[in-house]
TrEMBL record:
PANTHER family: RNA POLYMERASE ECF-TYPE SIGMA FACTO, RNA POLYMERASE SIGMA FACTOR. Belongs to the sigma-70 factor family. ECF subfamily. It comes from Sutcliffiella cohnii. PROSITE patterns: SIGMA70_ECF. Gene3D superfamilies: 1.10.1740.10, Winged helix-like DNA-binding domain superfamily/Winged helix DNA-binding domain. Residues 17-83 form the RNA polymerase sigma-70 region domain. This is RNA polymerase sigma factor. InterPro entries: RNA_pol_sigma-70-like, RNA_pol_sigma-70_dom, RNA_pol_sigma70_ECF_CS, RNA_pol_sigma70_r2, RNA_pol_sigma70_r4_t2, RNA_pol_sigma_r2, RNA_pol_sigma_r3/r4-like, WH-like_DNA-bd_sf. Pfam families: Sigma70_r2, Sigma70_r4_2. GO terms for biological process: DNA-templated transcription initiation; response to stress. SUPFAM superfamilies: Sigma2 domain of RNA polymerase sigma factors, Sigma3 and sigma4 domains of RNA polymerase sigma factors. Residues 108-158 form the RNA polymerase sigma factor 70 region 4 type domain. Keywords: DNA-binding, Sigma factor, Transcription, Transcription regulation. CDD domains: Sigma70_r4.
């Protein structure tokens, strides 16, 4: 009886839950600030905030989305305070192309990602980098699913427009073969 009680309690302890999420949280924070120390500071700040309000989380099954949201908010707060440039993590896009093409695509993606609003970056990261579903993102951001879908569509449309014909940097000056 005591063994199963302690196992159940241990499975849902903050420490155990955060250990399962720490790598993902770091990657999300890093994708916002592109700086290891800043990303670590953001994750640390988010963990402290999460620990202080862990008792308010009613359903532990939502821990991942809950703590992810705290990291995103902490990253956005950090950016607002420091006014740092936001860069796209190079690992975010891994096309199976030659090294040269991958470099060009990465530069274009980084440039386009820098031009997006923080809310658009958040949606794209949650959906395509972290793999959350539309309903999970809606729950995390406390917005209706329809709003998430339309905002995600607008963000993707903006990215597509910027990347059409090889992107702003290479599209107009590119040569035809």
């Amino acid at each position: 009886m005591f063994t199963s009680f302690f196992k159940r309690t241990e499975e849902h302890s903050f420490e155990v839950l955060i250990k399962n999420e720490r790598e993902k949280l770091y990657k999300i924070a890093y994708s916002y600030v592109k700086n290891e120390q800043d990303a670590l500071d953001i994750v640390q700040d988010a963990i402290i905030k999460g620990y202080k309000s862990f008792h308010k989380l009613k359903e532990k099954k939502y821990f991942s989305t809950w703590i992810t949201r705290i990291v995103i908010n902490s990253a956005i707060d950090h950016i607002r305070k420091s006014k740092n440039v936001i860069y796209l993590d190079q690992e975010w896009l891994t096309p199976e192309r030659s090294h040269e093409n991958q470099s060009i695509i990465s530069m274009d993606m980084e440039q386009v990602f820098d031009q997006l609003k923080p809310e658009q970056k958040t949606l794209l990261l949650l959906r395509f980098y972290s793999g959350y579903s539309i309903p999970e993102i809606a729950h995390m951001l406390e917005k209706p699913e329809g709003t998430i879908k339309s905002q995600l569509h607008r963000a993707l449309t903006k990215v597509k427009e910027k990347l059409e014909n090889g992107g702003e940097t290479y599209g107009s000056n590119g040569t035809e073969y």
